[in-house]
Amino acid sequence: MKQSEIKQLSTAELQEKLGETKKSYADLKMAHAISPLENPIQLRNVRRTVARLATELTKRDDQ
Asked: How far apart are CA 11 and CA 27, in angstroms?
């Protein structure tokens, strides 16, 4: 998910998306621990998306 897409979401949508993405990341980590993922770069991409969402939420809280 790109930063421009994230900025267009409402705060409620951001919180919902953050929860979904964190769950997705946890599931991917578990699957990778059991048997290696075909594309381990997915882990990095999802982790970075979590960070982008969390950063945008923090920015909005500060304003």
From this structure: 24
Identify the residue whose tokens are 């979590």: 50
Cβ neighbours for 50, distance < 8 A, ≥ 6 positions apart: 18, 21, 22, 25
Q: What is the DSSP string of the chain?
A: --HHHHHHS-HHHHHHHHHHHHHHHHHHHHHHHHS--S-THHHHHHHHHHHHHHHHHHHHHH-
- This prediction has a pTM of 0.91
Percent of the chain whose pLDDT exceeds 70: 100
